[in-house]
Design goal:
Number of domains: 3
Structural class: mainly alpha
Number of strands: 0
CATH topology of the largest domain: Four Helix Bundle (Hemerythrin (Met), subunit A)
Helix content: 55-70%
Largest sheet: none
Distance between the termini: 33 Å
Shape: flat
Radius of gyration: 25 Å
Strand content: under 5%
């Protein structure tokens, strides 16, 4: 074993991780040996965390914090992984790490610093606004919100402005005209780039593609890179067209499941 497990080559790290995961599963939790094997596994797989963290670069949070949160996800993956299921550890760990980082951004981050008093006021305004909208049949005005919550109108305005710090630019929720009668920002700006989702999906698929056997990767290459027909692929691989169809359906189903699992994390 290398002096520093985190410096091990990818192939060596994978082989050693497989061995240590089986060993960890057989050890009693709380023993010194269990703690040592677990710590070694964390160091060996920190590359997975750094790889996953790159997807969240440029979102206003220090990369060190993102990696720290991702490491929590890695630890959860190690503790929950069952080597007897026959699933590659990377296939299981990456969605777990990404899911932990996504929860961090969803639950704990604000685009700008907002005092706790205003955070709580924003929640009260959101709840009160929903209640008034149900009874009025329209969005409530600032005076109506102030009366409903028994606060000053200035506080309502302050809370509404503070709500803009929860996320950076919730433009897709705006429509029609703004409060000053001008066109809402969503009308003045371009729409989202549909290619961004494709890039994210491709990044999410990389670990799953790497975990496929050589035959399945070759099958996908022939179909979607060389754009061969199923009949041509069958001739190339020496199997029937029906077998090609079944193999493609199974492989694409596995990849689709990985994407859905990632999206639900």
């Amino acid at each position: 074993m290398a002096a520093d497990p985190s410096t091990a080559a990818p192939a060596d790290a994978k082989a050693l991780s497989d061995t240590l995961l089986r060993r960890l599963n057989a050890l009693e939790e709380g023993t010194p040996e269990h703690a040592y094997v677990r710590s070694t596994l964390i160091e060996l797989n920190l590359t997975l965390v750094r790889f996953s963290a790159q997807r969240f670069r440029g979102r206003g949070q220090p990369m060190e914090d993102i990696i720290q949160v991702g490491t929590v996800g890695l630890i959860k993956a190690i503790d929950r992984f069952d080597p007897e299921r026959g699933v590659e550890f990377t296939t299981y760990a990456v969605p777990t790490v990404v899911g932990e980082i996504k929860r961090y951004f969803r639950d704990t981050t604000w685009a700008v610093h907002v005092p706790r008093r205003l955070q709580e006021l924003r929640l009260a305004l959101a709840k009160g606004g929903d209640e008034l909208e149900q009874s009025l049949g329209r969005r409530p005005t600032v005076p109506e919100l102030a009366t409903h919550l028994e606060v000053d109108e200035e506080e309502v305005i302050e809370g509404l402005v503070a709500g803009n710090g929860r996320v950076a630019g919730p433009l897709d929720t705006l429509d029609g005209e703004d409060e000053c009668g001008g066109a809402a920002p969503v009308r003045r700006l371009g729409g989202p780039d549909p290619g961004l989702e494709k890039v994210e999906n491709l990044e999410s698929l990389k670990p799953a593609l790497a975990a496929l056997c050589e035959r399945d990767r070759t099958l996908l290459h022939l179909r979607f890179v060389e754009e061969l027909t199923q009949a041509d692929i069958g001739e190339r691989l020496g199997v029937s067209q029906m077998q090609v169809s079944r193999l493609l359906a199974r492989t694409l189903g596995e990849l689709r499941g990985e994407l859905l699992a990632d999206a639900g994390s």
